[in-house]
Amino acid sequence: MAKFFFRYGSMNSGKSTMLIQVAHNYSETGQRAIIVKPSVDTKQEGIHSRVGISKPVDIYASENDDLYKEIKTLYKKDKFDAVLVDEVQFLQPKQVEQLYRLTVDMNLPVIAYGLRTDFMGMAFPGASRAFDLANMIEEIRTKCTLCSKKADHNSRRKNGEFEKSGEQVVIDDGTQVEYVPLCSKHFLQKVGL
Ligand SMILES: [Zn+2]
Q: CB under 8 Å to 122, separation ≥6 — which residues?
């Protein structure tokens, strides 16, 4: 039976690059993986990695979309072999359940990439559901921006200042807001619990 993989990591851990690489590996063996992305992350069309490669998205998921139905409909039109999900933390918990059901009902592997927690150290509901259900959980490691130790947290800087409160989802538009991975020590020091 196909599995639901959750590969989580902090900001800038190379999740999008990995996703694009996996899509590429499928196509090299004559298979196809479709890409699903929440429409909340509307910075740019497609998936873009920090190393400069990009890939088009097959399904942009809005809050009320039934991903089970949508993916099944797409499959009937043109078969594929796997479902890759970018930014799974922004999906609704119900949508994560819909993806999980696909692994069983359609024997389609689902590989979801995302963040575990927000800039205040709180779980994203979509990520939390992915942890609940995933058959395989894998960590993508990255380094703290301030000391190069392993980063387990995300933080958000606005005009250079670490934010301690605010909206959970503010998309990095490359001007005012930037997301920074931090180790535990620096997270407690700069953001706090
Ligand atoms: Zn640190």
A: 168
Catalytic residue among 28, 70, 87, 97: 87
Q: How far is the CA of 19 from the centre of ligand 1 (A)?
A: 26
DSSP-derived secondary structure letter, 36: E
**pLDDT single digits (tens) 113-150:** 999 999 999 999 999 999 999 999 999 999 999 999 99
pTM for this predicted structure? 0.93
- Give 66 Cα–ligand 1 centroid separation in angstroms: 40
| Cβ count within 10 A of residue 118 | 21
**Would strands 177-182 and 110-114 be described as parallel, antiparallel, or unpaired?**
unpaired
**Alpha-carbon dihedral 128, 129, 133, 135, rounded to 10 degrees:** -50
Q: Is 161 one of the annotated active-site residues of the chain?
A: no
Strand pairing report for 153-158 and 177-182: antiparallel
Domain 4-141 CATH class label: alpha beta
| % pLDDT > 70, the chain | 96
| Residues contacting 128, CB < 8 A, separation 6+ | 93
Q: 106 C-alpha to center of ligand 1: Å?
A: 43
Ligand 1 center–CA 55 separation, angstroms: 32
Domain boundaries along the sequence of the chain: 4-141
Cα(111)–Cα(102) distance, rounded to whole angstroms? 12
What are the tokens at 76? 């009937």
